[in-house]
Structure formats: C-alpha cells, structure tokens
Amino acid sequence: MMRDYWDVAIIVYLSIATLSLIPTLLAILRKVKLNPDGDGYDKSPHFNDEEKERLKQHYSRIAGTLFYWKNQSEKYRTFKNYSIFWTIIVSICIPIISQLIGKGHSNWFLTIMSTHAALILGIYSRLKVEKNYQSFRLAESEFYDLRRELLDTPLKLATSGEQISNFFEKVGTLRKNARKSEIDNTPTIEDTKDKKQ
Fold first, then answer.
1. Which segments of 41-188 does DSSP mark as H helices, in order?
2. What is the DSSP letter of 41?
3. CB 98 within 8 A of CB 148
4. Cα–Cα distance for residue pair 150/46, rounded to 1 Å
5. What is the pTM of this model?
6. Distances (CA, A) of 151 to 37, 43, 58, 133, 164
C-alpha cells in the first residue's frame, strides 16, 4: 500500500515539474512582441521633420536587436523563476522526505527530486542564466531610457545640433556592450574544464 503512495507522489511531482516548465518552453518557442512605439518621434516638439525621419529610420534598424534582447531576457527570466522555485521546493522537501525513506519507490522519489534539482542547477550555472537575463534586460531597458531622455529632455544629451548624433553614438556603445556581455556569457567547453581542474 505504501508503494502506491510513492508511485502517486512520483507522478504528481513529475507532472507539476513538467507543467511549471511550460512558460520557459513557450518563451523559447514563441516570440514576445515589442511594446508599441507610441507617439515617439512623430509628435516630439524638439525635432524637425528631417531629424524625426532620421530617428525613425534608426529605430527601424535597431528594432530587430530590441526584439532579440526582449526575447532572450524573457527566456532567461522564465527559466530563472523556474529554477528558483524548484530549488527552494526541493531543498525543503529532501530533508523531510529522507526521514520517510524505506526501500523501493521512496528511494526513487528522492532520486528523482535530487536529479531534477541537479539538472536545474547544472543548466542554470552552465547557461549563465542570471548573467544573461541581467545583460539582455539591462540592454533593452537602457535603450528605452536613452530614447525617453532624447524625447523628453534632449538638451541633457547635447546641444541642439548634436543631440541625434550623440544619441546614435550612445546606442552604438550600448549595442557593443550588450554584444560583449552576450559573448562573455556564452557557455563554453573550457568553462566545464576549468571547474573540473
């Protein structure tokens, strides 16, 4: 009879673990849309028509990058949340369940929980989930902060004639930093070797 309880516990655990992974799988498979541009450049009182056109063209060129940053940050955010949730649950449950272990299926249940937690932690650390989430989210956020600054208080960026060029330069620097961060946070075989030595 006790064996049946452990079978049910294994099925329930695996079902909940799988179902709670769905948001991460959806973030990987489904693309998140960018927020609407709003009035943006068209209604800005600070720029003439030629400058507005330059800004709109620039935005159309960077929109793909923003789309990528947003999707990457969403993917890493959902897996980060999944990881935090399950490592907390497992770390609380294992000491309690270990007191109830007998033979057979109770051991399997504990093994499944431990393996699940180990997989999560391994993926989390190897894919550098926290760093990637932060870098993609920060890059996206910084772009929109710069854009708001340009539209709301352009004189903070530079004098009247230099604002747009200064904005383009800052966005270029932001893209370089985001790319560098992305490359630095890419897992490599060497990362694995360094940990083993």
1. 49-98, 105-126, 129-152, 163-184
2. T
3. no
4. 9
5. 0.81
6. 12, 9, 14, 27, 10
Residue type, 195: K
User: Which residues, in sequence order, are CB contacts of 76 under 8 Å at separation 6+?
Assistant: 129, 130, 132, 133, 136
pLDDT tens digit string along 49-80? 888 888 889 998 998 999 999 999 999 999 99
Q: Is residue 116 a contact partner of residue 17, using CB atoms and an 8 Å limit?
A: yes
Of the CA atoms within 13 Å of residue 144, those in its CB half-sphere come to: 15
The secondary structure of residue 185, as a DSSP letter, is: T
Buried-exposed string 77-98: b where 16+ CB fall within 10 A, e elsewhere? bbbbebbeebeebbeeeeeebe
CA terminus-to-terminus distance, the chain: 47
